[in-house]
Amino acid sequence: QMFIEYRICSDLNHIHHESGEVYRNPTEVQMSQIVLPCHANHCGELSVGQLLKWMDSTACLSAERHAGCSCITASVDDIHFEHTIGVGKVVNIIAKVNRAFTSSMEVGILVTCEDLYTDRQWKVCHAFATFVARRTEAGKVQLKQVIPRTQMEQMEYSLAAERRRMRLIHAEIITDLLSSSTAQLECQEYQDAVPAERTRVESVELVLPPHANHQVSTFGGQIMAWMENVATIAASRLCNAHPTLRSIDMFHFRGPSHIGDRLVLKAIVNNAFKHSMEVGVCAEAYQGGEPLRHINSAFMTFEVLDSDRKPCTLPRIRPEPVDGKRRFQEAIARKKIRLDRKYIISCKQTEVPLSVPWDPSNQMYLSYNNVSALKLMDNRNNWVLASEKNKVRLYTLEENHMLCFKVEMNVRVSAEQTFHLLSDLRRRKEWDRHYEECEVINQADEDDTIYRVATPSVTKGGKGKDFILLASRRKPCDSGDPYLIALRSVTLPTHPPTEEYTRGEVLCAGFTIWEESSSVTKITYYNQATPGVLPYISTDIAGLSSSFYSAFSACSQFLLANKDSLAALPPSAL
């Protein structure tokens, strides 16, 4: 999966050393709670607000275990709730630090539900939260690095850097998408539509010591719980029924809240779709006569379920003029963004078509998917050596009816120069005979380029293939990371398949480039072999030829011949 799902079975979190000792991640914190009636809503199900408090507390303790000082919640990524939890069930929460950056760290959270009578467990949700270490008397805290010990930890460590990149540009991307989308959206008038104003809710909470953590700051989870409460009331007013919270969009805490604050919470239904509605909710704080401070804003998606647990059709909303219409239009754009995030980032590879349509609104998520898929392949440890010739090694991996292969070699060229030379696919035909033509179609941004690549036929008189490829480049996040060039197929309406070529597809391919020393670089090429790619490599995998060696020997010669070339610039600079 593009977003790694933690295993419910705790055996994968713990490994046994030869000495017999059980390894446990030093940052791991577990919480188990039995759901009592006081934790439940009208349906006898655990209130999501209460669950958010438990999740935040567990994640905070994990972050503090790693940091060695107090920490505060900075942001939480999208959360999708797959199941509700009934009274009498046990909630198990596991949190651990996936990666630490300068003063912030990503904490992975897994929530499972346990039925004590049947001994069954199932996943409820997983989330990624960012915590920031608070300054101490000595000044700003410099966090120590996380050292991954298991394959799962290595995967999460690697993907955390990509998730962080997406978080940092998330707000900017959302703003751009909303500004470009809302101008094209019209508010349709529906008969019997419910006035949005009827769903408006405002509530105030006084922050008391039980609502604060050991640093006298209001628990992030407590604020989220209060926000969920007013959002649920707003959703109930639209449908005159009890709604179920299905997801919470990624959000950031804008500022802290403390004991003695008055927290003003406001919610309103922004838009209602056929089976779901978006509720916007914000939290502001004040003390005495001071102006309101913005603490947080969030967008929550609700459904109303019938007796068979199927979503009901919802009434339409009539927005207020000006601000209401803006929120109505933005909710439509956010729904599209939400679908991109959910189905491009977190879906299983077997559940999506190989080529996903590319457009500026899903660029960030396709790029994330592209790089994450390559990182996951790079972290596999069950590769089998199929062939080796003059220190060029071909490995294979068969898993879930998929065949992957990788080719590995060392070159005496700096990692950075190797990265720049291999990044521009237009130069690949200088060493790879399978690249007959290559042109840039779209320079999406500095790190992402879309190419059209044409390859010759593998059979005499047959058609050649062409590919529309998204190439995503990444420089190392820190000294322990490789350079990455990830490739995957996308579709563009401007470049449909043609009669002259058969359209091929690449699910996941690319290079990882590791700096072994200042002058020696390890290059690994990966490819998840789709039917369109397999004919080019099948004879090598079967051991009937070693054309892979000649291709990568030519690659090595190309890199050596250009190791001091100033022309090795990224495509965006050309």
UniProtKB/TrEMBL annotation:
Domain called START: residue spans: 379-561
Recorded catalytic activity of this chain's protein: hexadecanoyl-CoA + H2O = hexadecanoate + CoA + H(+); dodecanoyl-CoA + H2O = dodecanoate + CoA + H(+); butanoyl-CoA + H2O = butanoate + CoA + H(+); tetradecanoyl-CoA + H2O = tetradecanoate + CoA + H(+)
Keyword annotations of the record: Cytoplasm, Fatty acid metabolism, Hydrolase, Lipid metabolism, Mitochondrion, Phosphoprotein, Repeat, Serine esterase, Transit peptide
Entry-linked InterPro entries: Cytosol_ACT, HOTDOG_ACOT, HotDog_dom_sf, START-like_dom_sf, START_lipid-bd_dom, Thioestr_dom
CDD domains for the chain: BFIT_BACH (cd03442)
Pathway membership, UniProt: Lipid metabolism; fatty acid metabolism
E.C. designation(s): 3.1.2.2
Keyword RNA-binding: no
Enzyme class: hydrolase
Ranges for domain HotDog ACOT-type: 25-137, 197-308
Gene Ontology MF term list: carboxylic ester hydrolase activity; lipid binding; long-chain fatty acyl-CoA hydrolase activity
PROSITE patterns in UniProt: HOTDOG_ACOT, START
A cellular component annotation (GO) from this entry: mitochondrial matrix
Compartment(s) of residence: Cytoplasm; Mitochondrion matrix
Location, primary (coarse class): cytoplasm
Superkingdom, taxonomy of origin: Eukaryota
One Gene Ontology term from the biological process aspect of the record: acyl-CoA metabolic process
Functional summary from the UniProt entry: Has an acyl-CoA thioesterase activity with a preference for the long chain fatty acyl-CoA thioesters hexadecanoyl-CoA/palmitoyl-CoA and tetradecanoyl-CoA/myristoyl-CoA which are the main substrates in the mitochondrial beta-oxidation pathway.
Name assigned to this protein: Acyl-coenzyme A thioesterase 11
Species assigned in the record: Oreochromis niloticus (Nile tilapia)
